[in-house]
Structures are given as structure tokens and as C-alpha cells.
Amino acid sequence: MIDFLNQINSYYPLSEETTDALIAICKIKSFKKNDVILRAGDMARYYYFVRTGLLGYYTVDESGNTIFKLFFEENSFVASTAAIVEYKPSIFHIVALEDCELLVYSAQTFREMLVKYHDLALFHIHYLEKNWVVKKEPLEINLKWDTAKIRYIRLYENKKLYLRLKQHHIASYLGVTPTQLSRIRKELNF
Description:
- This protein is an alpha+beta fold and 190 residues long.
- The protein is built from 10 helices and 8 strands.
């Protein structure tokens, strides 16, 4: 719980009362590599916090190809947030890419708590601003304008994450075939 609370408090500090109420709705669950945490088409009922392991967030195109959007390492909050907010089925899958231990809490209960606990609402606002506006905007621009080679270099620079990914995950994330990824790697001599 310490990492979870530290992460929350890095966005906005919670009172002891709010902290106790939040901890009360959390459960720890373990998942094995390749377990699907959330399937596209299902309602997104939970928020997750990665204690250990690595998660992938992906969709499947009309040809059946897996397209990874994001990867979540330790100390990351994960959810199909748009599905929760709109109360619609998720369009993304969340899968364990490694054995994982997650903190799991009900999205509905958490959202009800946002009304009751002002500091929790402020945490949520700060989190969304930083991760859904500040971080997401450059990612969207990069996807539109950067080549797969440039995006590969950026991913490669994040060695900790890069070394945990399989080549087919990287190819999917970049939107290229494994053969194209091999050419990029050969050209860059990585």
C-alpha cells in the first residue's frame, strides 16, 4: 500500500480519513503472464494499480492484428478510463505481459468517493491533467508525425521498459510488422 499511497500523494496529498476510506476499498490480486485483466467489449468496473509486473493495453484491428497502445510498469494506475467515464464497454484489452500483482478497486465506489472526499477529487483532477492532457498530447502528436524509426528510438531510450518487452509487442506498438522492425533495428544497429 505504501507505493500506492506515495503515488497518489505525489499528485495531491490525502488526509488520513480519505486514506483510510480508500484503503478500505482496495484488494490485492495476482495475475499470471497472459491473463486478460479486461476484455474489449466488457464493462470496465475497476481501476488498477501495478504493484509488480507489466501490463499491456491494446486493441485488435479489423484484420485481427493486435495493436498495443501503452505499457504499464510498476507504480502505474491502469484502467479503461474512457469506458468508465462514459459507462460503455471498453474498446481496449488489458493483459498481463508478466506475472503481476495489482491493487484493484471498484470504479463506481471510487467515483462516489470523489464527491465525498475533496482531497481525493483533487488527486483525481491532478492525475487526469498530468496523464490525460500533459503526457497524452505529445504522444498523439508523435503517433501522427513521427516515423516508426523515431518512435523505436524513443522506446529504446527507456531501457527499463524496452528490455521487458518482446519484439512482437514492440512491433505492434510501433504499428509495423516484425520484418519491418528487424529492418529498423538493423539500420540503427541496435
